[in-house]
């Protein structure tokens, strides 16, 4: 016994399981071979739960966030504060004021985002919903990109950089090349999509070849893109001639996304394109061979590798497509929303909002579509809320942030609404079953 | 100390893991708890150790009802547990590990290591353990690490010791020594609960045997019961313990491995200069204690290892240096040893897992799109053929039992046209009924004339399946012996010794 030596194969003979796990991913700590670094499985499990939880959690997270937002509105409202000063004399006043401020805020949000019956003409009444869809268009596109990366197990935080590069490419084509109507638009869109794709693909390539973590790489590429575009906006490449501002010339009319519902609405062709993109991503993930491999890699990279799937290539392809979709959002910004020339703030924070949209949509294409519209509504309605009720638009940002917070903590949402834990299903049923038996026994005894 | 469990019931939602289990362990008794994986043994012990709270029933120690809110309470009451996966910190010394959790401190929080060393020495002298208190745990052999666990429990005055599958990681010789230790402990008055599913060990040391099936006590047996009796109690029906197979009709050497070495990412040589061949229509079993290079050897065959030297040829074509995809395409079927980690995507359905390693082309993929209707017909057919018990082919594989999961892996691999079949730990952690099925399919594969490699740490499985046995130790092959080699010879080989007369009897033993 005492001469039986250390087993050489297992790196940590203490737990045989760990040696099996370690051999499954020989990557860790080897700079030489550098295959894909797998995060520990506990982190992956939490990651999968956050990005892939149930629809119910998403809906309830929104509800909770709106309730919390309501509390904030009430607390910060001056009238409520005044009434609360004599709360014990006339508590009714406080509650009335709370109701007035909170309901006023959310009614304004609704009127700004969906339908405003106070306006005289029907066209004006339904204008808010078209505004919502306009705001939603780039959010959905970028959300699809981030969500696709999620499904392959990657966090694409580089939405800003990919959007900026895409916007610069599409914008440059838009005001430099003078092509015929139709072709110009298509070339500009393609240029943007390819630009975004390459910017995302760089991150994927670095992850696959060197094992660099995509979160770090994409964040750093955001800075590279921002300063690169800022620099180009001060050179003749992107800067409007004769101007001193870091701003590009306006886009040619031939490259602008046409309005869908006529000039009185801002809604542009991008919305149709984003519907097509949603269908495409759905098909890709659920019906294509590539998507099958994407999902396998996202859920269990070790099993995918053993099944002969080239995990590294999947990371590169996924980031290419993810970047292209996020790039589409940049294209919409520059060819649809701000056609009078863009600056380095053209991404408007959409690259980061897209992460929230993808989380809320559970990384599923149609979920992201719905979540994008909700966030578009928040954006459109937030302005109306500020204008009519004097409630700072920051409240909307707080609500958006709270949604992410609640989604990231499913047990919290489950606790608030007393939902069963999916990992431990049907729990509330168990204590119920013995009850009837007891009752009948008592009934028998009573007889 | 007398331990009594009275009517312990533990439910997880709709599942009743323990259903009114009664168990009495007398002082100085070794009580074996026998049952298949998933029978509820571990749940029961976690209730006893305070990790779970029982829904009904009570734990009684020496006629006093106990309420354990956590393992701390259980330890204070005198219950110690030796876990299957040791709860030790490899970079700490033995003494540090033993004191961990109830550190004695002196002035200004300084650790009292002297006292801890004394405790270790005292206990190891009492039982003749020969454990150095200052050795780093990570440097110790697995068998000695287990003794550290035992010392740890005894240092907290445990009067009831629970051994949870203690022999899973031990060589046959280490197992024998553990048995001796258990008898010694018993003589000193310690009560022992011995959890296992290995019948031979139970009959060797147990005073009484309680068999658990599906969360219920299905019977008590005495150690004189035969293996067949115990096995049929465990599974509820008569079980074939030996695999029915005809003598192999080996053909020409199909897989030839020549001077194969594997270097792991840490730069260690984990497979050393291994040479063997497998003939068409024979089963070569690779035996050995876990962690002696078997995992890396199979991974090297599959193209999963990066730094491989030597040569691997299958039917004259080289496999070395090919990608996993190409190895699979050249007709190699592979059952990985950790099916949850490497074999299946738990969140995928049965159907999706059945096409996992064929996601590239016909018949499952045409023009870049999945052929879902074909996949569904295929999955229905295969789950019937391989007896996968589920609520349908759209069930997530992660929800299936271990045995059914393994059948999904087998169905996937065996439904391709194979030229070589590699099964690593094909029956680890699955129920006896599924083991029977898996063994039958492996033998059937052999009888189709396919060369088969079975890697197993279970001697029973090796002996049951093998036509020839290669024993691995420290990355090398100790020797290749015929399938009917006695167990004690195999046991010695697994510990690295080459019994006299083994090598001359084996013409292929070029390795060692």
Automatic annotation (TrEMBL), chain A:
Stretches that traverse the bilayer: 50-75, 132-150, 181-203, 215-233, 265-285, 315-335, 341-360, 367-385, 391-417
Membrane topology of this protein: Multi-pass membrane protein
Species of the source: Herbiconiux daphne
Alphabetized InterPro entries for the sequence: ABC_transp_permease
Compartment(s) of residence: Cell membrane
Name the record gives this protein: ABC transporter permease
Region annotated Disordered, chain positions: 1-40, 421-447
Transmembrane among keywords: yes
Primary location group: membrane
UniProt keyword list: Cell membrane, Membrane, Transmembrane, Transmembrane helix
Transcription found in the keyword field: no
Biased composition (Low complexity): 12-40
Stretches with biased composition (Basic and acidic residues): 438-447
Bias (Polar residues): 1-10
Xref: Pfam families: BPD_transp_2 (PF02653)
TrEMBL record, chain B:
Keywords, comma-separated and alphabetical: ATP-binding, Nucleotide-binding
GO molecular function, one term: ATP binding
PROSITE patterns: ABC_TRANSPORTER_1, ABC_TRANSPORTER_2
InterPro entries, per database record: AAA+_ATPase, ABC_carbohydrate_import_ATPase, ABC_transporter-like_ATP-bd, ABC_transporter-like_CS, P-loop_NTPase
Top-rank taxon: Bacteria
Classification via Pfam families: ABC_tran
ABC transporter domain mapped to chain residues: 3-239, 255-499
Designated name of the protein: ABC transporter ATP-binding protein
Organism whose genome encodes this protein: Herbiconiux daphne
């Amino acid at each position: 016994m005492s001469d039986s030596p250390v087993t050489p194969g297992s790196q940590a003979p203490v737990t045989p399981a760990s040696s099996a796990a370690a051999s499954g991913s020989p990557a860790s700590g080897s700079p030489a071979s550098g295959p894909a670094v797998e995060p520990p499985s506990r982190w992956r499990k939490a990651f999968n739960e956050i990005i892939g939880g149930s629809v119910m959690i998403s809906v309830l997270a929104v509800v909770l966030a709106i309730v919390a937002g309501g509390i904030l509105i009430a607390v910060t409202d001056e009238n409520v504060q005044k009434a609360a000063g004599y709360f014990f004399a006339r508590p009714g006043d406080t509650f009335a004021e709370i109701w007035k401020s909170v309901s006023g805020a959310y009614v304004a949000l609704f009127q700004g985002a969906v339908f405003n019956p106070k306006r005289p003409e029907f066209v004006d009444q339904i204008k808010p919903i078209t505004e919502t869809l306009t705001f939603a268009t780039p959010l959905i596109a970028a959300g699809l990109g981030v969500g696709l990366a999620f499904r392959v197990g990657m966090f694409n935080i580089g939405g800003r950089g990919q959007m900026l590069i895409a916007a610069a490419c599409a914008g440059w084509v838009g005001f430099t090349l003078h092509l015929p109507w139709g072709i110009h638009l298509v070339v500009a869109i393609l240029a943007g999509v390819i630009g975004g794709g390459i910017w995302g693909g760089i991150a994927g390539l670095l992850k696959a070849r060197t094992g660099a973590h995509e979160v770090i790489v994409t964040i750093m590429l955001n800075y590279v893109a921002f300063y690169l575009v800022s620099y180009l906006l001060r050179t003749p490449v992107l800067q409007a001639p004769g101007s001193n501002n870091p701003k590009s010339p306006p886009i040619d009319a031939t490259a602008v996304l046409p309005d869908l519902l006529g000039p009185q609405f801002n809604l542009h062709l991008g919305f149709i394109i984003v519907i097509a993109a949603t269908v495409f991503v759905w098909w890709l993930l659920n019906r294509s061979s590539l998507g099958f491999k994407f999902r396998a890699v996202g859920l269990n990279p070790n099993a995918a590798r053993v099944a002969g799937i080239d995990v590294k290539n999947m990371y590169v392809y996924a980031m290419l497509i993810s970047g292209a979709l996020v790039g589409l959002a940049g294209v919409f910004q520059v060819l649809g929303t701000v056609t009078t020339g863009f600056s380095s703030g053209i991404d408007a924070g959409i690259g980061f909002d897209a992460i929230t949209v993808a989380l809320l949509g559970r990384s599923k294409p149609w979920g992201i579509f719905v979540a994008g519209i909700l966030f578009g509504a928040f954006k459109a309605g937030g302005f109306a809320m500020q204008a009519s009720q004097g409630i700072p638009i920051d409240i909307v940002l707080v609500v958006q942030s709270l949604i992410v917070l609640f989604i990231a903590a499913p047990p919290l949402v489950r606790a608030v609404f007393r939902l069963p834990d999916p990992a431990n299903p049907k729990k509330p049923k168990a204590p119920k079953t013995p009850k009837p038996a007891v009752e009948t026994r008592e009934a028998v005894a009573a007889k | 100390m007398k331990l009594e469990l009275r009517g312990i019931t533990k439910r997880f939602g709709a599942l009743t893991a323990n259903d009114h289990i009664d168990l009495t362990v007398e002082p100085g008794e070794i009580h074996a708890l026998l049952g298949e994986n998933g029978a509820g043994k571990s749940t029961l012990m976690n209730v006893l150790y305070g990790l779970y709270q029982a829904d009904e029933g009570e734990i009684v120690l020496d006629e006093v009802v106990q309420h354990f809110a956590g393992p701390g309470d259980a330890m204070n009451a005198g219950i110690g547990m030796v876990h299957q996966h040791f709860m030790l910190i490899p970079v700490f010394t033995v003494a540090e590990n033993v004191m961990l959790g109830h550190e004695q401190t002196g002035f200004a929080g300084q650790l009292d290591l002297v006292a801890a060393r004394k405790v270790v020495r005292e206990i190891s002298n009492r039982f003749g353990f020969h454990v150095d208190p200052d050795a780093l745990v990570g440097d110790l052999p697995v068998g000695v690490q287990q003794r550290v666990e035992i010392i740890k429990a005894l240092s907290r005055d445990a009067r009831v010791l629970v051994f949870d599958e203690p022999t899973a990681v031990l060589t046959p010789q280490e197992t024998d020594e553990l048995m001796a230790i258990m008898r010694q402990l018993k003589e000193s008055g310690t009560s022992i609960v011995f959890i296992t599913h290995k019948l031979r060990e139970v009959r060797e040391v147990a005073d009484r045997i309680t068999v658990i099936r599906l969360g219920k006590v299905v019977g008590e047996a005495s150690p004189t019961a035969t293996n067949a009796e115990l096995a049929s109690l465990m599974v509820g029906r008569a079980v074939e313990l030996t695999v029915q197979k005809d003598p192999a009709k080996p053909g020409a050497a199909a897989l030839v491995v020549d001077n194969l070495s594997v270097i792991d990412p840490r730069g260690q040589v984990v497979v050393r200069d291994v040479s063997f061949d497998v003939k068409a229509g024979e089963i070569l079993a690779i035996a050995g204690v876990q962690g002696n290079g078997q995992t890396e050897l199979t991974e090297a065959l599959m193209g999963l290892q990066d730094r491989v030297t030597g040569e691997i040829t299958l039917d004259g074509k080289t496999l070395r240096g090919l990608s996993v995809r190409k190895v699979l395409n050249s007709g190699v079927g592979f059952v990985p040893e950790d099916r949850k980690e490497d074999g299946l995507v738990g969140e995928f359905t049965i159907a999706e897992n059945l096409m996992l390693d064929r996601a590239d082309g016909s018949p499952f993929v045409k023009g870049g799109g999945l052929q879902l209707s074909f996949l569904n017909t295929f999955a229905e057919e295969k789950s019937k053929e391989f007896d996968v018990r589920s609520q349908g082919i759209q069930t997530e594989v992660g929800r299936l039992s271990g045995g059914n999961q393994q059948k999904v892996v087998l169905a996937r691999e065996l439904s391709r046209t194979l030229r070589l079949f590699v099964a690593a730990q094909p029956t680890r952690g699955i129920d006896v009924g599924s083991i029977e099925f898996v063994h039958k399919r492996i033998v059937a594969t052999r009888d189709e004339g396919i060369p088969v490699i079975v890697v197993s740490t279970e001697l029973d499985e090796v002996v049951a399946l093998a036509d020839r046995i290669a024993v691995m130790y420290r990355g090398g092959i100790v020797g290749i012996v015929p399938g009917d080699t006695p167990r004690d010879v195999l046991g010695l080989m697994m510990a690295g010794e080459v019994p006299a007369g083994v090598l001359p009897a084996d013409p292929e033993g070029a390795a060692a």
